[in-house]
Amino acid sequence: MDPKELKRVRMVKRIAQEFPDGALVNLGIGMPTMVANYIPEGRTILLQSENGFTGLGPAAQKGRENQSIVNAGGQAVTIVPGGAFFDSAMSFAIIRGGHVDYTVLGGLEVDMEGNLANYMIPGKMVPGMGGAMDLVAGAKNVIVAMEHVSKNGAPKILKKCSLPLTAKGEVDLIVTDMAFIRVTKKGLVLEEIAEDTTVEEVIKATEAPLHIAGKLGRF
Amino acid sequence: MKPILTTDKAVEGIGDGATLMVAGFMGCGNAFTLIDALVNKGAKNLNLITSDTAYPDVGVGRLICQNRAATLTASHIGTNPFSGQKMNSGELKVTLVPQGTFAERIRAKGAGLGGVLTPTGIGTAVEEGKQKLSLQGKDYLLELPLGADFAFIKAEIADKYGNAFLPGATKNMAVVMAMAADHVILEAEKIVEPGELDPDKVTIPGIFVSALVRSTLPASNVQLKA
Q: Is the pLDDT of residue A29 over 90?
């Protein structure tokens, strides 16, 4: 595994530990989807696919795809025993109504007030928000999973987001390749750092001010 | 009993400038046969309402690629690059709506509600131009009902009264769209006699359906990604 992939695995493994047994979780497309592979032994979570079911399972095997079962990315997937299908109004009632315990999404920018920007870059990327705005506004716990800095090294955890917001003040946790940060009323609290970094390095890579937890963990 | 039409007959009344809802999600649950007939008919300047524009050659995505839509109301267009290109060039007027709001606005139309109050979009660009209400300490946006002249729905089984069974994740926007359009054209893989579809297995009650059409094209929405 290349170093970048190893860091991603470490990040999603850490996120996977957050869910209590039986939690209903919605994972975004891309890296967040990897979280499902690292649920600690002895715990079971139920995944929601916002296009219309609970009990989202792994990708369908080649040749065994069912045209009626796709995930929110349009990929042929499976449904696990105990799953249930429903329509979009029900699916988003589940999301908006606060019945989803955790959602994990990627981020372009997050700021110290828990604002998230992850759905568009004006003039460049305008794909539409899909279900992201409903998920971030409605899920009980919102976890942002992303690289700590952008491709050119610029901080992504800012004092104030500059890109259009997906939701205001809804982020609870930010987990990156470097840090585990909780959004609180008094600001961002650095609770854990990755095993190959230092507090100084994390502070340097973060634009927003960080409170350092009394007992700093490692992951 | 509902009329069972040929595909050509079913889309005959959909004129230029009509407002059309197409159920489906990334092609899953699109009425492939009806979309094909509409493309062949040559209807243009459609006002298209659909959750996403699928992929360029798949289902509802074809209406975009073949320049049949003048406006598009959707929640996601990222998987069909032509939607973004036409939006940027000004050929296609696009309104992006959060997916849950999209479903609920359509449901409101079908359910006779004057609108819905949702927290989704508060503090974002979505709230621009909308009425904001603060109720019991929480802010909501007033989102207005969304209806259409026609809706295309795809079912696996329908009986001759239009009662329909939609399997798995194909239900998506179909249930609310069936309630919200003046003319609902339902494409079914199999059309059975009344009584042959268990009333307990009905996803969409036949009362919403205007006409039935038999599928002649297989669903092939699934993207075979590794």
A: no
